[in-house]
Amino acid sequence: MARIALLPEGSVSHEAAVHLVGEQHQFDHYALISDVFLSTVQGKTDYSVIPIENTIEGSVNLHMDWIVHEVDIPFQAEWVYPSIQNIIGRRAEIEGDWSRVVKVMSHPVAMAQCMNFIRKYLPHAELEHTGSTAEAVHKVKQHPGSGWVAIGTALGARTHGLDVLAPEVTDHNNNYTRFVLIGKEPMKLERSGKPKTTILVMLPEDYPGALHQVLSAFAWRRINLSRIESRPTKRRLGNYYFYMDIEMGLNTVLLPSALAEIEAIGCQVRVLGSYPSYAFEQAVHK
């Protein structure tokens, strides 16, 4: 049994973790994503569950910056899970009358995914951001009679004994979040996923056309990049690294030779992990 750090009980991270690994492991819940990371860095837990990308909002930059700048723990798996958000509160308090809602609380990413519903039914309400959807639900639980509601998961509503006042209020039906499991050792999962590798590439400053040569190293070997994104190095203005997802494992001939070619032109390459990737329908536990 592994010990896994993640955001609070009832969050999307919690639902997603149960979906991938089941409920036989020990889940340690933290209010802040920094504490989730540090728990595994300090050896208190074996793994951390980190949301890193969303269909609607794109990259979760804070979490990506922690992965790149603050910790050095490899990816051991990635999976995709639907972010199904609901309006949560007390049915007896609101009684179907949205004008009774004074405040809507949620994680900023979750709230941004539900703005159509908010504009239509809750334009008068104060919007307050929280560290997670689960924290928002917990705050609503602690303040009965206040006219507060939360945007969160059905698991979060059940966990805190509240009602789903409006189900599935996200703006789009294709709202998925990509999670990574980070840890020092691979986790045994019941199914084999699609092999994938994630790297960071820092280009040499005095090499014109370096990015073109990097991409060419993959192209002529017919290695597919499923994602490439530039992010500031935080060293100086205009200095960037490139985050790349590669649809191939390191246990091949082609990928290591491509990385060697990139390094030969002066690029710095850091491998964030080579791991199994699970689409939603492929995840281990349904």
Description of the molecule:
This protein has 286 residues and is of the alpha/beta class. The protein folds into 3 domains: 3-83 and 175-183, Periplasmic binding protein-like II (D-Maltodextrin-Binding Protein, domain 2, 3-Layer(aba) Sandwich), CATH 3.40.190; 86-166, Periplasmic binding protein-like II (D-Maltodextrin-Binding Protein, domain 2, 3-Layer(aba) Sandwich), CATH 3.40.190; 195-274, Alpha-Beta Plaits. 29% of the residues lie in helices and 31% in strands. Helix 9 runs antiparallel to helix 10. It is elongated and about 65 Å long. 38% of the residues are buried. Residues 282-286 have low confidence and may be disordered.
Averaging pLDDT over every residue, what do you get?
91
CATH superfamily of the largest domain: Periplasmic binding protein-like II
The helicity comes to 25-40%
Distance between the termini: 19 Å
Unreliable spans: 282-286
Largest sheet: 10 strands, mixed
Number of discrete domains: 3
Enzyme class: lyase
Domain Prephenate dehydratase: 2-184
Pfam families: ACT, PDT
GO molecular function: prephenate dehydratase activity
